[in-house]
Amino acid sequence: MLIKIMQNVLAENAKMAGEIRDLLKQKKILMINLISSPGSGKTSLLEKTLPFLKAKYRVAVIEGDVETDKDAKRLENSNVPIALINTSGACHLESVSIEKAFSVLDLDNLDIIFVENVGNLVCPAEFDIGEDMKVALVSTPEGDDKPSKYPLLFREASLAILNKIDLLQHVDFNLNNFSADVQELNPNLSIIKMSCRTGEGLQDWFNWLETKIASKQRVMKN
User: Fold this and answer.
1) Cβ-Cβ contacts under 8 Å for 191 (sequence gap 6 or more)
2) What's the confidence (pLDDT) of residue 88?
3) pTM for the whole structure
4) Is residue 35 a part of any domain in this protein?
């Protein structure tokens, strides 16, 4: 019975995700699903990213958290639209939550939406929310074994970000092992090494985003 219920949940989620993807295609909006463990730096990354992008593009954030609005408040200074979703204990966002968040966003005036998913490397990777691509973010203090321990996320991600590289000399993290595991799971997955604190690698991230935005807009014009 439990298996059947789960299958029904996933089927309903996938149906709504498809509808969201069609809507984003119609509106020419790129949606990025940021997935990481708690404390890896998703919010810090957005704090650095939003001021850069909003000078050129129309940007919004869907902020997913189990409780509180603390991360959403951190992003308020960026002056972009933010839709907060509190899951009240659920370990991931689902497509129905994204569809509801759209009701407070002006989709006719957006180029890109970031979804900061609930801090978790397991469940968010399993639930399609209609995004164009998933970005897997890990940090050096977590250890280099995350790709091998959580393979689904790295198989499905379009980009891997390794944050907090400024701490490499202080933590037990083997870059070669990390890169090898990523490439074994997903040979086409690029890795951006970054420090949100020092700014190293941020420009590579910005360039990647601009390429993806341009690619979606170009496809929609054809």
Assistant:
1) 159, 160, 161, 162, 178, 179, 182
2) 80
3) 0.92
4) yes
